Amino acid sequence: MATSLKLNIPTNAPRGSPAFTQALKASFALHAFQADQVQFCKSSEESVSLEAPKDNIKIVDINAIVRFLARIGGAPWKAGDRAPDDAWIEWEEVVLRPRIREIETVLDLAEKLLAKSWIAKSGGVTPAQIILFSTLYDTIATAQPSILDKHPRLKSWYYNTLESDWAIEGIQKAASMTTVSSLDGNSTKAVKKAPVTADKLPKKPVVIGTEADRKLNAGIEMKTYAPDQKILPEPGKKNILITSALPYVNNVPHLGNIIGSVLSADVYSRYCKARNYNCLYICGTDEYGTATETKAIEEGVTPRQLCDKYNALHSDVYKWFNIGFDHFGRTTTKEQTEIAQDIFLKLHKHGYLTEDSITQLYCEKHEGFLADRYVEGTCPKCQYNDARGDQCDKCGSLLDPMELISPRCKLDDATPVVRPTKHIYLKLDELQEQEEKWFKQSVTEGNWSRNGRIITESWLKEGLQKRAITRDLFWGTPVPLEGYEKKVLYVWFDACIGYVSITATYTKDWEKWWKNPDNVKLYQFMGKDNVPFHSVIFPSSQLGTKDNWTMVHHISTTEYLQYEGGKFSKSRNVGVFGNNAQETGIPPDVWRFYLLSSRPETGDSQFIWRDFILKNNSELLARLGNFVNRLVKFAAAKYEGLVPDYTDAAKDPAFDAFKADVNKLLKEYVDELEAVHIRAGTDLLMHVAQRGNQFLQDNKLDNATFAAEPAKTAAVVGLGLNLIYLLSALCYPYMPATGESIARQLNAPVRAIPDTWEMDLLPGHRIGKAEYLFSMIDPKKEAEWQGKYGGDKKVEEALKEEEKKKKAEKKKQKKKTAMKAKAGIVETVKDAAVAALPDSGAAASSSKD
């Protein structure tokens, strides 16, 4: 058997010529028999040839080539169904040889031969079927389709075959490989006021997917920006500023992290852009704080090295998920220091900061005050053994280190003592009246999500108290006050300022976004545990500066996404993390759609592998993918890729209910997305696709209708293709690659989401080549993925054992290494912090003045 086969297709094969018919036969055979080892090549010769020089093979007879490709590709018919020798002789010698030129004679013989069961009822595609269809396709395309009326069996078989995958793909391949020049010189004349059927094809070169072939309504495109163009707000326009909670740099994001902030924000950002709003989406890594210092010590690196590592890791994960940040930055910048210190000093100037001496846990072993996360112990509320000094991961309660039962130093497991120290506090109590007034207005006008409203109301009802905004760390924004050189700003005072500083690294005109409340609406996305910092602490800080800040208009929150009934755990290998999703081979759009359709908006939701597979197979593939593929291929086969003239027929009142249904669903989609109801949009998107499927079914889009009712078929195809174009826009926020693929198949630009559905693909517009949007996922993968991401039993057992012996093991195994790490890294941390930030002495001096 040949190992390297080359199929030469002539480059100048006009329709109706023997060379074009040969090219069709070869193209059909390759697709029908999946002879993947054959390489397509263009040739200047007038006929098709198949060559394998190393194996001394050269076949020049096209029918012999078709039969050869069937053998090497594994034609799917049974040996018992093959044609008898005499039938083959009759088939080839009488019908297919060029000595019979009369069309009627060819059709008569073909009708008789088609009656033979071995041709019409074989267990798959046969060489005979391909040879007959190729001959008829070119014959009928250059004659009147009515010529088949006298041959009903042949007519039915021909149009059924015309709809098969191998026929559609073969026609497109032959058209793209050959010039397909006209025989009569009428290269551009197109038929008007009638559907473009096989008998009325335009006599021009077939070119798939070029702008020159576009016939579209004006003003439908989504606004785009040049790579070096900065997005800035414009007076009188809808200007939307979007942020998602800054991911911390001490972990790999799991699916719950991704849906909770960056993915949800990305959907709304893409929606705004698809509505042609002026929209900027900002995010980045949160890099200061205790967690960075402790993680750096654990990994034996400097905080800067740790931040570089995780910033790159997060960037790669979000890039794979196709998160379309306009700018993804980080908080360890000079802009962060300048803006955070400016806010701090203005709060100080207006009397909203106060100094207070407090008692704080102090570790005598390494001689240092312990920031919240350097303290571990038993939660006083739920008795969880591994609560942190700032929060209990089990019950979610915010804690003070002094509240912990049996506290211990995270670094060396020593029991800390209580000593007095000084910190700076933000007087939230004195800012409460301003905060409440702002909140009541914002929560109403911005229609906050339920969690955001309830959590904020709870804080305000309890009464705001002064809150410490400094910490005993080295890795952070220096406190610009004399006497505080060894302290930094608390990360949760500092972190929200990161949105501003990251914008400042994007554009020097950052104040046009952040100090422009009359022209900019701020939308912020986060998990529910981050709400107080965005709805109370940051807004209060903004109000206290007395600057004209852009403040949050809408807060969108999520509950928790669980994994198969439990929690995500990196240490236990439980759940899918950002870098695992790519390993499955499932495209990002499928992950995006499933997560968004399961978005935990009003309560916790579950990631379930069975649901994931079902969502892909029964919704994305069966509803959306098949609808698009069926219609694009039908248009390619029946109209050679042209949108038929549907103008008059589409005005039939019989189509009014369909148009009304689509516009009703479109309005609901826009209303839900305007209200930032992200999950609801996925349901409406699928409803639109299902309405399209129902439309094709109600109007019986098939070969019989195409032949019997050409005007109606043209209307159905025209309306259907325009619905697909609308779907491309509705898909774009949720599945951007899918939306772009649909637009590409329609040879149209990515379009804006309209208020009303219009017919924007005009008659005569040439569509592109069909692409498969989704693939079936084998249900057997459920067990495989459950096993791979369901946790390591040995790890589970080891962790349980470690839990029982935790204190003893830490004393024996971690004491020396932790002390060495601390001693070796503290100086590096100090140097890195000073080197990365502006001169703290200058800042202190300015504060003193």
From TrEMBL:
Annotated Pfam families: Anticodon_3, tRNA-synt_1g
Localization per record: Cytoplasm
Enzyme class, broadest EC rank: ligase
Residue ranges annotated for the Methionyl-tRNA synthetase anticodon-binding domain, each copy included: 655-793
Chemical reaction(s) catalysed: tRNA(Met) + L-methionine + ATP = L-methionyl-tRNA(Met) + AMP + diphosphate
Record field: transmembrane: none
Main subcellular location of this protein, as a coarse class: cytoplasm
Entry coiled-coil feature ranges: 792-820
Gene Ontology annotations for the cellular component aspect, listed alphabetically: aminoacyl-tRNA synthetase multienzyme complex; cytoplasmic stress granule; cytosol; methionyl glutamyl tRNA synthetase complex
EC annotation from Swiss-Prot or TrEMBL: 6.1.1.10
Keywords: Aminoacyl-tRNA synthetase, ATP-binding, Coiled coil, Cytoplasm, Ligase, Nucleotide-binding, Protein biosynthesis
Family to which the UniProt record says this protein belongs: Belongs to the class-I aminoacyl-tRNA synthetase family.
The protein's name in its UniProt record: methionine--tRNA ligase
Source organism per UniProt: Drechslerella dactyloides
